[in-house]
Design brief:
Strand content: 35-45%
Number of helices: 4
Distance between the termini: 103 Å
Number of domains: 5
Number of strands: 52
CATH class of the largest domain: Alpha Beta
Oligomer: single chain
CATH architecture of the largest domain: Alpha-Beta Horseshoe
Amino acid sequence: MYDSRENCNAIIETESNTIVVGCQSTVIPSSVENIGACAFYGSGIKSITIPNNVTSIVKNAFTGCDSLTSVNFHCQIIYEWFSKCPSLKNVYFGPEVTEIGSYAFSGCTGIKSVTFPSNLTKIGSHAFGGCTGVESITIPSTLSTIATDAFYGCSSVSLVSFHCQKIDSWFKGFPSLNKIVIGDEVEEIGKDAFSRCSGLSDVSINDNVTTIGEQAFFGCSGLISVTIGENVEGICKGAFWGCTGLTTVTIPNSVKSISGNAFYDCSNLRSVTIGHSVTFIGGSAFTDCKNLSEITCLATTPPQCMSWAFYNIDKKKCILQVPRASISLYKKAEQWKDFTNIGGLPGENFYNVNDYLDCDVHLTGQGSSFESPSGSYFLLGVEAVVKNYSKHKIVLERVEFFETGGVTISEIRLVNNIEGYRPNNPTILFDISGNGKKPSVLPKMKVYYHTEVGEYFVKDSREPKIQEDNTVDYYYYTPISWKSLENGYDLSTNPITIVKGSTIYVTPHRENNQSSEGCAIKYTLDGSFPDSEYSDNVYYTIYHDGGAPIYIDENCTLNMIAAEAPYSDNGESAETNRGWQISPIQYNVKVVDGGTAEKPFTTSEVNTLFGTLMPDSITSTDWYVKGKVVSIKEQFGTKYGNATFYISEDGSANNQFYIYRAYYLGNTRYAGQETVLNVGDDVVVCGKITNYRGNKLETLQLQAYVKSINGETSGIVEVQADANKDDAIYDLLGRRQANPHKGVYIRGGKKILIK
């Protein structure tokens, strides 16, 4: 039985509510659920609305509808109903649509633009495959699932607007794509998201994005400008590899790490600015950036660089600009030190001495020494070649000698008073004369000079002492550098993790193993620079007996500088006697209430606290960690005496911590004791922690031991043996012992302990 209800202009099979014949003016009634085979074949229909009551349309229902140009959808799921409809140009999606199935519009070459509904959650495989006419697409925030090949063959797509949380590789390899709009809803740009989209020229990443995934813009050779948002924390491996059109990049202060190959072969890149939070630059991150002429790094501590980070960059021509107070650190840091031209940041009103002035002082070989009736007399020629890298000329004031080895210097006569201009290297010549034998080596000296605009310079890395006559001391002896933090903390980890209320001991180390006794440390705990002025937030400590103590009881940012000697012979303080070293050492200090034998860490605490360890860095503190045994990779055995296993808080696979080659109870090699490990055992482990190759937190090999197993700490049955009994006693190698000493033995087939 059939009907034509609600003036629909169609024939409906009454029992199944199926349209079996439609025409050009058909309106689908609200009671119809299905559209049958070839229902609209040859009908000449131009547009149609699919209401939400329609749940099934036979695949060939609209075959031969060569005039169909527009479809309005209000059904929940769209299946493969209109594939290969070349005349279809306009598709409209009502809010009822939640899913577009596989091949739904495949081969619809007439569709130009697609805007998805606000409730859409899924787009299936090849849903728009081969839609060569589609030029623009808008992805809504509700979309959680899009098949990788949903838009395969959409060769004309030039504009995509994204409002989803994560952008995946849906448009990988689309050369026609020349513009993307990344909405505020986007938080992550996934792996290969725009890989080989060579038509992209300008990309702006919003401030809500936190991650730029691996090879996200790999091979985008047309990309000439990229703006990275202020909340991006990591630039993953190969993210901008081969973006040969890029000329300048600014990495914001939010970024903490730049992974390997991140900007590999960006051959036209000319300038890079690296934010102050970057601590790690991966291998080959900037390799083959052959035209790079300027790098500005705002980090006060030089980021750790892996192999070939700046390979094939002309380090003689490329200018490296860093905080002036940190220049000496960069000159010592691996890979950074390879740059010839290291200078301060533009606009800083503070000069670090080492960067702008250097001085090579030596005897010229000229001069004489002779005997007179009144005694010996000498005259020596001295040459000081001053390398002046500042923008201003320098004026020599005077030269003073001290620590002359007993030789009396009676006169210093300047041969010239040279004013040096950049880039000249002026030579200062002067004669020294005095009584006694001619010295064979140059005594230590002070050179006083100033610049035309009032900046002062010294050779080493300390802030100069300004004299009343506006001159400056030039100290010609070994500068101070940092060696270590003692008392279980070291400089290989940043942040430093310490137990609440700890005292750390800082060691300023002088070159040539000179004594640091009496050196002064000036520091702050609020992240500010400890300048030369006394204030409430600046603290002082003195190096004596192996370290300068600093007490810390809460999280802080520790900045430290040093003076070579805090007190002069007349009791003056270091503030007025000698200049302070102006290259600060900065560490973030995390204070934890735990990790001790009395309060061991849980495995989740360990993973949280030490997850920021640099690759292969090691804590010099022995931390205590508790947990249940999850799995055992290597049981305790007498061959190696150690074990390898995983623990977690509850014995599950969540928040596991790897115990690698840890010794037995009592920090001893296992010798066959009865107690061994079993899955589910409660254990406490003590030892050093490392981040193995940056991939796994674990205890350091043979630098940890099992403190207890289910509360037991010895692993043997304690039996008080009587050494005078006739029962035979054997050692653990089976040798009979007539007079056993203290230790573990075997008697009657059982282990005993003789105390």
